[in-house]
Specification:
single chain; 138 residues; mainly alpha; 77% helix
Length: 138
Amino acid sequence: MATAAFDAGDFTAAVDHFHKALAQDPNNLDIRLHLANAEARENIAHPDGDLAKDPLLADARQQYLAVLARDNGNRQALERLALLDVNMRQPQEARDLALRLIQADPLNKNGYYLVGVADWGNVYQAIEKARQASGAPI
């Protein structure tokens, strides 16, 4: 039922079903990954302002971290968590995860992309502040 709801785009129902499945089998890493993915997709479908304060994304992050606690090189958890951290404006965390992804899977092009996005995120605010302080036009 959970995967059918997810495939149908009903992420609210998918999250509910995956939570129930996780309660039945808390050691199942696949359920945790599916739950985190559904929570992230639900947030994309219905964003509510500040991503860093969104409870769905906070739980998705916790699910990915729980997977990594048991399987340190889980490529899907590393990639999705790095992407989540980029979107939550946590570029250093995203960069660290992307580097771990590259180490686990050197051929994964998304890892390299995420490092670049994270690096840009790390310097953008400083560059923008310097531009504003200098009075340079946009």
